[in-house]
Amino acid sequence: MRRVIEAGNPSTIYLGWKRPLLPHAAEFLQQRFGDDLGSAIVVVPTDRARRRLKECFEIESAAKAIAAEPPVVITLGDLPERLYSPSRPVAVELQRTLAWTRVLVEATREDLLPLLSQPPARDPLGPWIDIASTLRRLHEDLAASELGFADVEAELSGEAESRRWNLMRRLHERYLKKLAAAGRVDPFAARG
Fold first, then answer.
1. Strand residue runs (E) in 15-142
2. Cα dihedral 161/165/167/170 (nearest 10)
3. What is the DSSP pairing of strand 41-44 with strand 72-75?
């Protein structure tokens, strides 16, 4: 997107297509905010764009010998936490994956059968982390659409699928408790 929208000013400023966007945006924001640049929050769509824009600010500052603090650059996925104050620190992706892993490892083999026909051995943890990552991503995909495992379960008619989603709902409840015990909160639960 080649535009800048300022929160305090609802007008839209188009930067055009004649120059690469991120270097142009860094220059524009440096000129627009000057010494107050460090107080700005810039939202970009991807982590790659975040890293590149930060690099562009460094290059722009060095080229003009400006010592101003760069703005905070975040991705769209980090924006909600800037708009509210969570009750506890938000768990990062690794913490969420490890909480899911712990829940899976602590479940009985029989409990996991609706989800895994052949649950892996308790050790090593690698296969469990892979499964936990899949469940974490599934939860995040559902939550991004304001849905949960219970919502899917309610729509199913087949007994096997219903048992699978029921298990994932129960595992999710345990996952949230694990995070709470660690003093963390799931970002999607905190937003809800």
1. 41-44, 72-75
2. -160
3. parallel
Backbone angles phi, psi at 73, to 5 degrees: -115, 120
Helix (H, G, I), strand (E, B) or coil at 141: helix
Task: Report the distance separating Cα 47 and Cα 77, nearest Å.
Answer: 10
Query: pLDDT value at position 11?
Result: 66
DSSP string, 68-84: PPPPEEEEGGGSHHHHS
Evaluate whether 37 touches 29 at the Cβ level (below 8 Å).
yes
Strand 3-6 to 9-14 pairing: antiparallel
In the predicted structure, residue 15 carries a pLDDT above the cut 80: yes
- Distance, in Å, from the CA atom of 29 to the CA atom of 5, rounded to the nearest integer, reads 11
Contact (Cβ atoms closer than 8 angstroms) between residue 116 and residue 108? no
